[in-house]
Amino acid sequence: GVAIVVNRNQLKIENIRTREVIPGRALLLETTKHDGKPISILGVYAPNAPGENAQFWKDIQEWFSRHSVRKPDVMGGDTNVVEDAIDRLPAHEDPEGPVSALDDLKENMNLVDGWRESFPTTKAYTYHQTYTGSQSRIDRFYVKRQLIDQTYEWEIETVGIRTDHRMITMKLTSENAPTMGHGRWICPPHIMRHKAFKNFVHKTGLELIDSLRKIGRPLPRTETHNAQTLWKEWKDKIYTEGRRLAKIVVPKMDAEIEKVEQDLKNVLADEALSDEERKLSGAVFTEHLAALHRKRFRDSRKTAEVRNRLEGEVISKYWSMINKPKKPRDIIDRLLKDTSALDPADYSYESNSKKMATMARNYHSKIQNDRRETAPDIRDHTIEVVLSRTARKANNDQVIDLSKKLTREDIQEALKLSANGKAPGLNGFTYEFWKILDDRYRTAVSLEKEGFDIIKVLLLVFNDIETNGMVAGTNFSESWMCPLYKKNNRADIANYRPISLLNSDYKIFTKALTIKL
């Protein structure tokens, strides 16, 4: 049979329509993309016998001639035929009948083999016949010729389930799709546990504490050398080191898979080897690669099963998330450059993400800055009037307590109350990161070893802010804005509600102040 699986995070499912072109062999799916434009996908599973294979392509062409439907933008599946000898190992031509029938269908629907267009001379295969060792590229995606420039990342990948086929993948975008970056960096859990990163954080952390101790004794506190500037410099160091390690540190299993994949590519591309040698060596690497992927898949499933056993069907974030309706991610495809234009014919749009971000920032900055200025004496008088009408006032003891600086206990309690799994700010450090550092310090103390006391550092930084105010340029209170669509024209930034994500150390500070209140 044939099936098409739709990822709800990628495509809208409200107006999906499917049509059975050939029962059990060809299925047509019609839906719309994020930009509202239609897309038609034809999934196929062609017969193996040459005569039946040729008739299959003719039947598809005949079906489309009888039905007024959109011809497929994408056609993919197991074709059970190759168009060129390069797609078989050992190399040989396929029978003329099915090849010609498929070629006629492609020409009628204006389809091209996207992988071969991207890699004209590369030898790679998707099907491995175990008992003979022969291989072929019978699994393919075809796309309309006018869409080929909108496809990218054509890959042939091994999957984690037991099968003698490999999977072909590609990404299809829209001609008007916005330019999208990689987003902000978040310190991944495996980097937090990595030995080199742990040692780096520990070493630079002890140096930070030593520098903080010297402020005022004997070094004077200045606007360019104080607890806040030292804290920013240290965060910048670990941010840079974390990003560096994240690019080079990969799990052992992933590293081994990458090596075997490269070995397979080298063998198949080695012209010094005979077809028989390539077939035998390729079979060995293909089977080894499949075994590695199956092991990784089993490990992943086991982890998922354990988590579901622990957190499934109990009140938890995990249970809520897996039962939450899945919807495509909200993407701002474009923004109006001039919202004052009355005639739609005069509208002009921006689709570059960085420029759209600048437009959103300027819009909200203007709202903030356009507020009417109030004279200081009028503002002070208004505050006094409002406070004079407040029935409850702090007594002398409460005033004394509130004037005290934050304590170690305040910060520990704030960190304890900070929930895991929350989105970090621009620096990429989550609450879990600071909790891990605190746990390591407690372990070091219990073993009578020198440890990096993150709570002490936060205490010195927070109290410096309370005493001297926030130092400009330290970006302590910086945030990144996430616009959430409300209603009306999606291309008008005024129709989005902004929320700000602050850095986790800033939120710990405000939480500690709340505890003191």
UniProtKB/TrEMBL annotation:
Listed GO MF terms: endonuclease activity
Keywords: Endonuclease, Hydrolase, Nuclease
Alphabetized InterPro entries for the sequence: Endo/exonu/phosph_ase_sf (IPR036691)
Superkingdom to which the source organism belongs: Eukaryota
Protein name per Swiss-Prot or TrEMBL: Endonuclease/exonuclease/phosphatase
Species this chain originates from: Mycena albidolilacea
Lineage: Eukaryota, Fungi, Dikarya, Basidiomycota, Agaricomycotina
